[in-house]
Specification:
about 500 residues; mainly alpha; 22 helices; potassium; transport; TrkH; membrane; metal ion binding
């Protein structure tokens, strides 16, 4: 093989990249996913509904498959990855893991078809939260826990991708968190390995605290554990068909607080515990995100009090919970906000396209991109007023390079074009306009519920046709990996050495 590659290189012919390092990492991660299936196996044994063989079989298949992939690629392991291999790895992981993660849904009590199982697993690992399953109230606890585990693993995976891969790949302006001027980690922090360990520890700690608070306010141990996982991951899978509506009351305040915490940059928490008490408060992302929530909640409170005639406390609670859930991309719903009027429906559609902070478990466009967009617009308006002046867009008090601005603008263009294409593709499968446009938006933004009677907060994706489900599955992948990470691997030049 090496001789063939050398001959091709001498002849000046392009040849495919070495995918063995990518396969090795994917194999290891698949094997880890298989080991994670043993946790719901134990829960099924404790529940006594005879579902544990499903996870035993799924675990064996997944661990053997992952081990086989890793061993077959072990001879190609290198000290580092090229930029092409990094792109391929980032995309391939989010393709391989949902395929193996879907196995318990096919073999389990759901008896899911391939399209439904892959949709559910992709929705879990991308922390989208849209579901094709009904009868969640009576579903075996092992399968419910597996859905929560998929989202919890996907949440920490998103943080790693946002911190390590996307800045290196210069995707969608994420390089702003890599450059020396915008050193996200700060000079006071220890080396990268320790930072990653601290972030993982904080992720686990937040989950435990969230579970304990849920437990204190009345959830069962199982519900508290599963919902804590899907809250901190901003995933939104619930154990009930009514989503979070079965926990109406003080529990909504608890969920809102932890959804906000999970949508903030985890690296700022690391800075806090390493002696920088103002890191979180000074981050422009954090200020912008909190202010956006505040404004949206106030708007909805006024609407609910004047238009829907809810009491002050209930109006504030339902507005806070549902706004936080949608803007963070969690996707829990406590009420059918489709009944709040056309203004509220339009508001929920657009707030789903905002998103949380970079470096968090949140999804969608992200606050920092809108801040950079507005900074660029402001600078351009000043240039128009004063043609001879020099005006540079600034972020966090520092100048923003043209490369970063171009990357952000490209992301917005790609996002809008992709949203349009996915919407058209969904409409071609026979879906109505509202379902098509909101389905495309919620999948690309990884939010969860869409709008309308079918996929709105009171519905789910179960009744959609198979082509629509496959389209949405692809859209979830595109949105979670910031679009261009996936698009670039389909270019001819990408595969040239």
């Amino acid at each position: 093989m090496r001789r063939c590659l050398d001959m091709a290189a001498q002849a000046g012919e392009p040849f495919a990249m070495d995918v063995r390092p990518v396969g090795y990492v994917i194999g290891l991660l698949v094997a880890v996913l298989g080991a994670a299936m043993l946790v719901p196996l134990l829960v099924d044994i404790a529940e006594g509904r005879g579902q544990w063989p499903v996870f035993l079989q799924s675990s064996i298949i997944t661990m053997l498959g992952g081990t086989a992939i890793a061993l077959s690629c072990a001879n190609g392991v290198r000290a580092g990855l090229t930029i092409q291999q990094t792109f391929l790895l980032t995309t391939s992981v989010w393709v391989a893991l949902p395929l193996f993660g879907a196995i318990p849904f096919v073999l389990g009590a759901t008896d899911a078809r391939a399209v439904d199982a892959v949709f559910e697993a992709m929705s879990g690992l991308t922390t989208t939260g849209g579901t094709v399953f009904t009868g969640l109230d009576t579903m075996p606890k092992g399968l419910l826990l597996w859905r929560a585990i998929l989202q919890w693993l996907g949440g920490i995976g998103v943080i790693v991708v946002a911190m390590v891969f996307l800045p290196e790949l210069r995707v969608g302006g994420m390089q702003i968190f890599k450059s020396e001027s915008f050193d996200t980690l700060g000079k006071i922090l220890p080396r990268a390995g320790q930072i990653a360990t601290q972030i993982s520890g904080l992720y686990v700690l937040f989950t435990l605290i969230c579970a304990m608070v849920y437990l204190y306010f009345g959830m069962s141990v199982f519900d508290a554990t599963a919902h804590a996982m899907t809250t901190i991951s901003t995933g939104g899978f619930a154990n009930y068909d009514a989503s979070f509506g079965v926990f109406a009351g003080p529990m909504e305040y608890v969920a809102a607080i932890f959804m906000i915490l999970a949508a903030l940059p985890f690296v700022r928490y690391v800075q806090l515990i390493n002696g920088n008490p103002v890191a979180l408060r000074r981050d422009p992302q954090v200020r912008g995100f909190v202010m956006t929530i505040f404004v949206l909640v106030i708007l909805l409170v006024v609407l609910l009090e004047e238009g829907v005639h809810l009491g002050n406390e209930q109006a504030f609670r339902e507005a806070l919970f549902n706004v936080t859930s949608i803007i963070s991309g969690t996707g829990f719903s406590s009420v059918d906000y489709m009944q709040w009027g056309s203004f509220a429906v339009a508001l929920f559609f657009f707030m789903g396209l905002i998103g949380g902070c970079a470096g968090s478990t949140a999804c969608s466009v992200k606050i920092f991109r809108y801040q950079l967009l507005f900074a660029s617009i402001r600078a351009q308006l000043r240039r128009i007023r004063s043609p001879h002046g020099i005006f540079t867009p600034r972020y966090d008090g520092r100048p923003v390079t043209e490369e970063v601005l171009a990357s952000v603008m490209s992301f917005f263009v790609f996002f809008i074009v992709t949203l349009g294409l996915v919407s058209v593709a969904l409409s071609m499968t026979g879906l109505d306009f509202v379902t098509s446009i909101s389905g495309a938006a919620t999948a690309l933004a990884n939010v969860g519920p869409g709008l309308g009677d079918i996929i709105g907060p009171a519905g789910n994706f179960a009744t959609l046709n198979d082509p629509a489900k496959w389209i949405l599955t692809l859209a979830m992948l595109l949105g979670r990996l910031e679009l261009m990470v996936v698009y670039v691997i389909f270019t001819v030049k990408f595969w040239r050495a």
